[in-house]
Fold this protein.
Amino acid sequence: MAQLTVSFTTDPSATFYRIKYRRTGTSTYTTITATASPVVITNNIACGYAYEGTVQAVCSPGVSCYNFTISNPDMYQDGDVEYTNCSSGQTVTQAVTPGANFIVCSSTVPVIQNMNSATVTQGSVCGTATAEEASSEVPWAASAVECPVYYYQVTACDPAAPTPPNNEVRYDEALATGSTVVELTGAGYAGWYYLISDVGGPQTSTVLVATVYPNTNCNNMLP
């Protein structure tokens, strides 16, 4: 599997780091977090492509407030709810009367007290208790990730077909489908079929530079 290593200068005041990355030439970033450098990334990384992104040090992640709906379906039981008021940051205790249904904006999950009939349901963001403290996003770029190279026993289905130098075949493990007969592409190989195996027997992975066919041997594969 291809992987990308991103190294950066750490900051002793940072709580964590936010790393964005994308394949060069694309528009959508994937975002991950890390607590140290370097960071080894394997998700959504393909060999043969360059990558770019940003690194940002986050000293304080900030705290968002959410709307919480407090519902008490019991028409006889009452109690209280305790939550953190988003505007003041103070702990508030509010009565929950029989049959009550209301919304509070809190930076913590409200806690029901002295009753067992009421429920708490989280809703949309309603404010920010504390803002995020972070550095600017520092850009970085990485050259093309090298594709792994594997050496196989490559047998041409037609004796006239050219043999790849050193039996070298490049492939991406994520694209493996299980067939062993391929038509190699590129200068000199287009249109020729090859049986690819290793010392231990048929190779169950396919090659990146090939069009894969369902046959598992060279039968009916001659030009």
